[in-house]
Amino acid sequence: MTLTNIDHEKQIYCFKVFYAFLVVLLLRMNNPCIGCSEREMQALLAFKQGLVDDGNSLLSWGREVQNRDCCQWEGVYCSNHTGHVVKLDLGDQSLRGKISPELVKLQHLEYLDLSSNNFNRSKIPDFIGSLSNLIYLNLSYANFGGQIPNQLGNLTHLQHLDLSSDEYEWFDHSIYAENLNWLPNLSGLKHLDLSSTNLSDVVGWLEAVNMLPKLRDLILSWCNLPPPIISSVSLMNSSKSLVHVDLSYNNLNSSIIQLLSGTHTNLVHLDLSWNNFTGVVGWLEAVNMFPKLTNLILYGCNLPPPIMSSVSVMNSSKSLVRVDLSYNNLNSSIFQWLSGTHTNLVDLYLSGNNFTGAVGWLEAINMLPKLSNLILSGSDLPPPIMSSVSVMNSSKSLVHVDLSDNNLNSSIFQWLSGTHTNLLILIYLGTI
Ligand SMILES: *[C@@H]1O[C@H](CO)[C@@H](O)[C@H](O)[C@H]1NC(C)=O
Ligand SMILES: *[C@@H]1O[C@H](CO)[C@@H](O)[C@H](O)[C@H]1NC(C)=O
Ligand SMILES: *[C@@H]1O[C@H](CO)[C@@H](O)[C@H](O)[C@H]1NC(C)=O
Ligand SMILES: *[C@@H]1O[C@H](CO)[C@@H](O)[C@H](O)[C@H]1NC(C)=O
Ligand SMILES: *[C@@H]1O[C@H](CO)[C@@H](O)[C@H](O)[C@H]1NC(C)=O
Ligand SMILES: *[C@@H]1O[C@H](CO)[C@@H](O)[C@H](O)[C@H]1NC(C)=O
Ligand SMILES: *[C@@H]1O[C@H](CO)[C@@H](O)[C@H](O)[C@H]1NC(C)=O
Ligand SMILES: *[C@@H]1O[C@H](CO)[C@@H](O)[C@H](O)[C@H]1NC(C)=O
Ligand SMILES: *[C@@H]1O[C@H](CO)[C@@H](O)[C@H](O)[C@H]1NC(C)=O
Ligand SMILES: *[C@@H]1O[C@H](CO)[C@@H](O)[C@H](O)[C@H]1NC(C)=O
Ligand SMILES: *[C@@H]1O[C@H](CO)[C@@H](O)[C@H](O)[C@H]1NC(C)=O
Ligand SMILES: *[C@@H]1O[C@H](CO)[C@@H](O)[C@H](O)[C@H]1NC(C)=O
């Protein structure tokens, strides 16, 4: 080995040491535990002090030497760039008590989840509206009560808002709103769930919702929603962005159907169950306008039979995977719609209608090559006429069949025997 070679080795060695040092330095700078600021730590400790922590979820929150870095506390997350507390994830931690106003000192907070705790019907604090960087706010199932604070309108960066509660508490909807005038301020909102809040006085709820151009998920189930007054709102901004709509268990009337038809071309999930659509005309035409619809859930709506004309084969037909039209006033014309192009249908629920005299219902069902769940009880179904239908396409895919409480006879067994090799559950309680 020559001298220059040794020098060279030394140089490389020095460079390696320097490089390692640099990497360690950079890693430290990027280290998530830069440590939280004294101010944020004090705010968190004040927040803890207001709470009753039955489950000892916040044991790591303390002043002791080993706990000093609040970014390491349970449920607390800091920005890797700035070191500020950006996320409080305290869902389902058996927390009770009061929410301290000191919380607003966490001005960099983007994500707040206090869901599934018990705040004993206390009002959602107004000062939440001062956490102006929030992107995600989840106060669901946390037993809040009283009026939704208008101050939420200050949260202009919000993308997810969930104030829903337990549908089993629907008798005493403890959260309510008199208006949603603050809602249009949240122009980046993508997900809104106010289920089981009492919105019975909010006449302009649809206008407010329509002002949200990015809204994808609209979940207002069990809200006592009054029927919207359809005016010029029917074709509006949010229409195009909506993907998932659940307005079940409200007091809507058939005008909502009018509203939905039109521009909702991205709708995938539509649930309007337990509203009263007596006398609605054109509901099936409206539904057929949604080219991406996969779930159509309209049980218990007093839906009249559709008038079958040109609607039987249309766009949405192909995309539908789950159809629930149970407990309506449909007649056998619905089978005409079902046969044909519903090649993706997996779940079909049609119980509680009146299919007296329906001819060809079994043929229609046999046209559905992917059908797995067929729930069709209590609908006065007549015995199928067994001819060529006994061995057909859908037979093989069926897993769960309920034809109880109809007027079938033993001919149904002729259909069942044969190729139903995947059938796991069969409920047949007819007279034989
Ligand atoms: C910080 O970085 C860690 C590790 O890469 C990551 O798990 C964590 O989610 C990041 N925190 C935030 C708030 O982005
Ligand atoms: C809010 O929290 C509840 C319960 O913890 C959860 O089921 C729900 O999905 C959350 N909402 C959002 C928008 O993430
Ligand atoms: C809940 O609030 C009521 C009054 O509104 C009070 O009497 C009761 O003690 C509170 N319960 C708990 C567990 O804080
Ligand atoms: C709303 O935001 C403004 C400015 O961002 C602030 O001055 C005001 O205090 C906030 N109001 C509430 C109730 O949070
Ligand atoms: C809407 O946000 C603006 C600030 O962006 C605020 O001044 C106004 O008070 C808010 N309106 C409501 C109803 O919260
Ligand atoms: C909802 O609010 C209305 C009016 O504010 C009230 O009359 C009604 O009783 C409330 N409903 C429920 C279920 O709390
Ligand atoms: C719809 O959005 C446009 C811009 O995206 C806006 O100018 C208009 O005011 C919005 N209309 C309603 C009714 O919100
Ligand atoms: C639905 O209710 C609204 C408001 O009460 C009313 O204006 C409208 O005429 C009703 N529509 C139908 C079809 O009953
Ligand atoms: C449904 O609406 C019709 C007419 O609008 C009305 O006659 C009927 O009583 C309503 N049914 C229920 C269960 O509210
Ligand atoms: C069906 O879809 C085609 C394009 O995929 C579209 O041009 C046509 O307008 C749609 N028809 C209805 C009734 O939505
Ligand atoms: C179903 O009801 C519609 C509308 O009331 C009617 O026009 C049609 O004849 C009925 N179809 C059958 C098979 O009863
Ligand atoms: C079912 O419809 C038939 C006529 O299509 C009618 O005679 C019968 O009364 C209806 N049954 C019920 C329970 O409404």
TrEMBL record:
Transmembrane segment boundaries: 12-29
Protein's UniProt keywords contain Signal: yes
Main localization (coarse): membrane
Domain Leucine-rich repeat-containing N-terminal plant-type: 39-79
Residue intervals of the Disease resistance R13L4/SHOC-2-like LRR domain: 88-316
Keywords carried by this UniProt record: Cell wall, Glycoprotein, Kinase, Leucine-rich repeat, Membrane, Receptor, Repeat, Secreted, Signal, Transferase, Transmembrane, Transmembrane helix
Stored Gene3D superfamilies: Ribonuclease Inhibitor (3.80.10.10)
SUPFAM superfamilies: RNI-like
GO cellular component, one term: membrane
UniProt topology in membrane: Single-pass type I membrane protein
Subcellular location per the Swiss-Prot or TrEMBL entry: Membrane; Secreted, Cell wall
Example of a GO MF term: kinase activity
Record family assignment: Belongs to the polygalacturonase-inhibiting protein family.
Listed name of the protein: Putative leucine-rich repeat receptor-like serine/threonine-protein kinase
Species annotation: Prunus yedoensis var. nudiflora
